[in-house]
Amino acid sequence: MPGCEQVATIVHRGSMDNVLGTLAVLARWIEASGYADAGAPRELYLECPDDPNDWVTELQQPVRPA
Predict the structure, then answer these.
(1) Euclidean distance between CA atoms 11 and 56, whole angstroms
(2) Which pLDDT score, from 0 to 100, does residue 15 have?
(3) How many CB atoms lie within 10 A of CB 19?
(4) Which among 3, 7, 47, 62 could bridge 39 via Cys, Cβ 3.0 to 4.6 Å?
(5) Chain segment 24-49, per-residue pLDDT in tens
(6) What are the φ/ψ torsions at residue 46 (nearest 5 degrees)?
(7) Which contacts of 25-29 are long-range, i.e. CB under 8 A and separated by 24 or more positions?
Protein backbone atom coordinates (compact mmCIF):
# COMPACT_ATOMS: atom_id res chain seq x y z
CA MET A 1 0.00 0.00 0.00
CA PRO A 2 1.52 3.33 -0.98
CA GLY A 3 2.22 5.95 1.66
CA CYS A 4 0.14 9.10 1.96
CA GLU A 5 1.38 12.57 2.78
CA GLN A 6 -1.89 13.58 4.51
CA VAL A 7 -4.99 11.66 5.55
CA ALA A 8 -8.20 12.62 7.29
CA THR A 9 -9.37 9.99 9.77
CA ILE A 10 -12.43 9.16 11.81
CA VAL A 11 -13.24 6.21 14.08
CA HIS A 12 -16.40 4.23 13.35
CA ARG A 13 -17.88 2.11 16.13
CA GLY A 14 -20.25 -0.67 15.13
CA SER A 15 -21.06 -2.81 12.14
CA MET A 16 -19.75 -1.74 8.76
CA ASP A 17 -23.37 -2.11 7.58
CA ASN A 18 -23.91 1.26 9.31
CA VAL A 19 -20.78 3.08 8.14
CA LEU A 20 -22.38 5.53 5.69
CA GLY A 21 -23.22 8.11 8.36
CA THR A 22 -19.64 8.11 9.63
CA LEU A 23 -18.31 8.47 6.09
CA ALA A 24 -20.65 11.43 5.54
CA VAL A 25 -19.26 13.16 8.66
CA LEU A 26 -15.70 12.63 7.39
CA ALA A 27 -16.59 13.93 3.91
CA ARG A 28 -18.18 17.07 5.35
CA TRP A 29 -15.10 17.72 7.51
CA ILE A 30 -12.78 17.28 4.53
CA GLU A 31 -14.73 19.82 2.45
CA ALA A 32 -15.24 22.29 5.32
CA SER A 33 -11.52 22.17 6.15
CA GLY A 34 -10.44 23.06 2.61
CA TYR A 35 -9.29 19.63 1.49
CA ALA A 36 -10.20 17.28 -1.36
CA ASP A 37 -9.93 13.52 -1.74
CA ALA A 38 -6.54 12.40 -3.00
CA GLY A 39 -6.83 8.66 -3.47
CA ALA A 40 -8.59 5.50 -2.41
CA PRO A 41 -9.94 5.37 1.16
CA ARG A 42 -8.60 2.84 3.68
CA GLU A 43 -10.07 0.93 6.59
CA LEU A 44 -8.03 -0.12 9.61
CA TYR A 45 -9.85 -2.64 11.80
CA LEU A 46 -8.84 -1.87 15.39
CA GLU A 47 -11.19 -4.22 17.26
CA CYS A 48 -13.09 -7.10 15.65
CA PRO A 49 -14.92 -9.16 18.27
CA ASP A 50 -17.46 -11.79 17.24
CA ASP A 51 -20.33 -9.29 17.29
CA PRO A 52 -19.90 -6.81 14.40
CA ASN A 53 -21.89 -4.23 16.39
CA ASP A 54 -18.86 -3.98 18.71
CA TRP A 55 -16.26 -3.42 15.96
CA VAL A 56 -14.00 -0.38 16.02
CA THR A 57 -12.69 0.74 12.63
CA GLU A 58 -10.49 3.69 11.68
CA LEU A 59 -11.52 5.17 8.33
CA GLN A 60 -8.74 6.97 6.48
CA GLN A 61 -9.13 9.22 3.44
CA PRO A 62 -6.01 10.56 1.71
CA VAL A 63 -6.44 14.31 1.19
CA ARG A 64 -4.77 17.28 -0.49
CA PRO A 65 -5.44 21.01 -0.25
CA ALA A 66 -8.43 21.91 -2.43
Answers:
(1) 7
(2) 98
(3) 15
(4) 62
(5) 999 999 999 999 999 999 999 999 99
(6) -90, -40
(7) 26/59, 26/61, 27/61
Half-sphere exposure of 7 (CA within 13 A, CB side): 16
- Tell me how far apart the alpha carbons of residues 48 and 43 are, in angstroms, rounded to a whole number: 12
- The SS3 of residue 17 is helix
In this prediction, residue 8 carries a pLDDT of: 98
- What is the C-alpha to C-alpha distance for residues 15 and 47, in angstroms, rounded to an integer? 11
CA dist., res. 27 & res. 29, Å (int): 5
pLDDT at 4: 87
Could you tell me the pTM of the whole model?
0.91
